Amino acid sequence: METTGTTAAQGTDRPVIDLLQLYPRDMNIYGDWGNVLVLRKRLQLRGYDVRLHEYNPGDAFPPTVDLIVGGGGQDSGQNKIQADLLALGGRLKELADDGVPMLAICGLYQLFGNFFRTGTGEMIKGIGLLNVDTVAGPTRLIGNTVIESSEFGTVIGYENHSGQTFLKEGTQPFGTVTKGEGNNGQDGTEGARYRNVVASYLHGSLLPKNPAVADFLVRQAALRRYGSFDDAPLQVPFEVQARLDAAARPR
Ligand code: GLN
């Protein structure tokens, strides 16, 4: 395992957040790395030191994890991480049940679910952290996307997936599609929510344009580790502009 970022607590008394990026080598497309950058930056602006752990197949899982993020991938990338992710599944489910905030985008969202059957009929097993099933459809669902979320307001992103995901019993969507296709192009849902887990098809990346989602993850991580969080709003001008630009784009 590679550890980068601030090696916190060395001579400082700033609080530390351990941020884990799952599978950056194989699952990190359409700008998903930007989610890690935003989480790290917003944590730093709020006074936390960030230890960034990049976890690839075969690495040791860090002993302390406050926040988990992972991106999308090609079917081949999903195949490469499948065995490792299945081995990690029990631990990830325990952490989710314990309130650890997580962001899973597209290919990792699918594998946080029960399974993804690809366009060639291959079955890639998921860990069942989310009760969702994914089957590739006849055409890819591609384009700029806008959803409405009761928790986060208007959320803006970009989707590109063959998989069509269906929420099964007890699973809530992340939001409702107002532009684009979302989970499956049929039922108007997008993504999934469970405890402090946010799963979504939206790349672009998601968090730079949607600071409300970023701050939810940051807040839950800080509250769980330290029991308190200063909710003072952070206005980053680039984010305001990115949001306006992205919302104005045609599909
Ligand atoms: N390979 C998956 C699909 O095509 C996920 C794609 C992605 O992560 N963008 O559905």
Automatic annotation (TrEMBL):
<comment type="function">
    <text>The lipid II isoglutaminyl synthase complex catalyzes the formation of alpha-D-isoglutamine in the cell wall lipid II stem peptide. The GatD subunit catalyzes the hydrolysis of glutamine to glutamate and ammonia. The resulting ammonia molecule is channeled to the active site of MurT.</text>
</comment>
<keyword id="KW-0573">Peptidoglycan synthesis</keyword>
<keyword id="KW-0133">Cell shape</keyword>
<comment type="similarity">
    <text>Belongs to the CobB/CobQ family. GatD subfamily.</text>
</comment>
<keyword id="KW-0315">Glutamine amidotransferase</keyword>
<protein>
    <recommendedName>
        <fullName>Lipid II isoglutaminyl synthase (glutamine-hydrolyzing) subunit GatD</fullName>
        <ecNumber>6.3.5.13</ecNumber>
        <ecNumber>3.5.1.2</ecNumber>
    </recommendedName>
</protein>
<dbReference type="InterPro" id="IPR033949">
    <property type="entry name" value="CobQ_GATase1"/>
</dbReference>
<dbReference type="InterPro" id="IPR029062">
    <property type="entry name" value="Class_I_gatase-like"/>
</dbReference>
<comment type="subunit">
    <text>Forms a heterodimer with MurT.</text>
</comment>
<feature type="binding site">
    <location>
        <position position="140"/>
    </location>
    <ligand>
        <name>substrate</name>
    </ligand>
</feature>
<feature type="domain" description="CobB/CobQ-like glutamine amidotransferase">
    <location>
        <begin position="22"/>
        <end position="210"/>
    </location>
</feature>
<dbReference type="InterPro" id="IPR043702">
    <property type="entry name" value="Lipid_II_synth_GatD"/>
</dbReference>
<keyword id="KW-0378">Hydrolase</keyword>
<comment type="pathway">
    <text>Cell wall biogenesis; peptidoglycan biosynthesis.</text>
</comment>
<keyword id="KW-0961">Cell wall biogenesis/degradation</keyword>
<feature type="active site" description="Nucleophile">
    <location>
        <position position="106"/>
    </location>
</feature>
<keyword id="KW-0436">Ligase</keyword>
<dbReference type="Pfam" id="PF07685">
    <property type="entry name" value="GATase_3"/>
</dbReference>
<feature type="active site">
    <location>
        <position position="203"/>
    </location>
</feature>
<dbReference type="InterPro" id="IPR011698">
    <property type="entry name" value="GATase_3"/>
</dbReference>
